[in-house]
């Protein structure tokens, strides 16, 4: 028999199918799905025993077949400024980070979509880690569950929630893992589940242009664009996906993003790299480029990491840059670096995971089978 599977991340239809398969009678299925959904995502139940209003034999059935397991916590760190970072693990070599950033009026969880990344943006630490694989819906949602567990942030319907906002700004490119990100965010934004308003969920992309319209119509969250340069020659160098989808095409996709309005502006992220992209001429060009788009500009002081080839712009230069943007009528908040001391700030996330070569994987799996007694000896 296979070991019990976690139910975290299944949508209602998949949950229904799993229960039917486990022998729950058809007539009861919808009711059972509703009960489980509520216990899991509103109350954050971690085991079936806690579901006290379910019949004992149903709970026993669930216990035999399923779990509500979250990813394993490898490390949990707290920064001097209260930022928290978890390194999570769901299998050999599958490690990823999640960051919680408490502020006075909100608590934002920065969620990863992939282990590693394919984009190789020059200033980003994650970009130095090769893609291992996409995270599953359960692994993406599991990050939210872990944070809510650790912060005692259940039930989801409580008035003073700790996780109030989600940003898909952790490791990876969410639009290269569209289906799984969509499935996880659907549960995060489901009013009968984690119940975060779509206004408080933001997906950030380096510019996977063909997926941007679908993000708007199918996910419906807010959109952030990692722009970082105003000329194609420079953007080609520091955000290499620009060679495929240049600035003009990216901004066209933003202009027609479904649901963008003055009340729901698109955020343009702009990392401040000393003497690279931080001149006043750059600021003026930025304002010219986003003309006609309901936009706000988020200036991000560059966060250093070991071996990074850039320095952060001087504070006085960041202020001058922000002033140009601001005078043109755009909000230009400078993102306060958070959690730098635990390498939790923007662009600092990375795990040790590397993609296993097929031969190494086969050897490890065989060894694990031997250890668990499923195989008498190592295959040749
Ligand atoms: N791949 C997506 C999601 C990552 S979001 C994207 O690119 O949008 C992480 C944000 O932090 C991006 O805007 C990224 O460009 C920015 N970032 C990366 N490295 C950084 C660094 N060293 N300092 C500051 N911001 C950085």
Biggest sheet architecture: 9 strands, mixed
Strand order of the largest sheet: 3-4-5-6-9-10-11-12-13
The total domain count is 2
Total of helices: 11
Could you tell me the number of beta strands? 13
Share in helix: 25-40%
Poorly predicted runs are 376-380
The CATH superfamily of the largest domain turns out to be: Aldolase class I
Report mean pLDDT, rounded to a whole number: 92
The kinds of small molecule bound in this structure are: S-adenosyl-L-homocysteine
- CATH topology of the largest domain, anyone? TIM Barrel
Broad shape: globular
SSE order, one letter for each helix or strand: EHHHEEEEEEEHEHEHEHHEHEHH
* Proportion of residues in extended strands: 15-25%
Label the CATH architecture of the largest domain: Alpha-Beta Barrel
Taking all Cα atoms into account, the compactness measure Rg is: 22 Å
Look at the helices and sheets and give the structural class: alpha/beta
CATH class of the largest domain: Alpha Beta
Please give the alpha-carbon distance between the first and last residues: 26 Å
Features:
single chain; 380 residues; alpha/beta; DNA polymerase, domain 1; TIM Barrel; 2 domains; two-stranded parallel ribbon; disordered C terminus; binds S-adenosyl-L-homocysteine
How would you summarize this macromolecular structure in one to three sentences?
With 380 residues, the protein is an alpha/beta fold.
């Amino acid at each position: 028999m296979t070991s019990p599977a976690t139910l975290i991340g299944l949508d209602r239809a998949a949950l229904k199918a799993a229960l039917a398969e486990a022998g729950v009678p058809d007539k009861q299925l919808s009711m059972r799905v509703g009960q489980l959904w509520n216990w899991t995502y509103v109350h954050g139940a971690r085991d079936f025993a806690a579901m006290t209003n379910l019949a004992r034999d149903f709970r026993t059935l669930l216990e035999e077949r399923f779990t509500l397991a979250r990813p394993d916590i490898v490390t949990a760190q707290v920064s001097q400024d209260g930022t928290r970072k978890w390194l999570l693990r769901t299998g050999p070599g599958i490690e990823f980070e999640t960051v919680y950033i408490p502020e006075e009026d909100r608590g934002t969880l920065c969620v990863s979509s992939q282990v590693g990344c394919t984009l190789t943006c020059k200033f980003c630490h994650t970009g130095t880690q090769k893609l291992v694989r996409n995270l599953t819906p359960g692994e993406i949602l599991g990050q939210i569950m872990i944070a809510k567990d650790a912060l005692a942030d259940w039930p989801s319907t409580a008035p003073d929630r700790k996780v109030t906002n989600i940003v898909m700004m952790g490791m990876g490119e969410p639009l290269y893992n569209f289906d799984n990100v969509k499935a996880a965010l659907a549960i995060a934004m489901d009013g009968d589940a984690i119940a975060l308003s779509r206004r408080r969920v933001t997906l950030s992309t380096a510019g996977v242009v063909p997926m941007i319209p679908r993000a708007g119509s199918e996910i419906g969250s807010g959109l952030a664009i990692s722009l970082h340069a105003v000329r194609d020659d420079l953007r080609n160098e520091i955000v290499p996906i620009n060679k495929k989808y240049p600035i003009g095409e990216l901004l066209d996709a933003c202009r027609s993003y479904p649901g963008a309005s003055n009340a729901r502006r698109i955020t343009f992220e702009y990392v401040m790299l000393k003497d690279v992209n931080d001149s006043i001429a750059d600021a003026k060009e930025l304002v010219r480029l986003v003309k006609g788009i309901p936009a706000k500009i988020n200036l991000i002081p560059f966060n250093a990491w070991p071996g990074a080839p850039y320095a952060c712009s001087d504070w006085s230069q960041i202020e001058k840059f922000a002033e140009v943007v601001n005078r043109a009528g755009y909000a230009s908040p400078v993102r306060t670096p958070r959690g730098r001391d635990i390498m939790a700030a923007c662009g600092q996330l990375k795990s040790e995971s590397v993609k296993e070569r097929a031969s190494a994987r086969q050897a490890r799996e065989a060894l694990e089978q031997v250890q668990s007694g499923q195989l008498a000896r190592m295959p040749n």
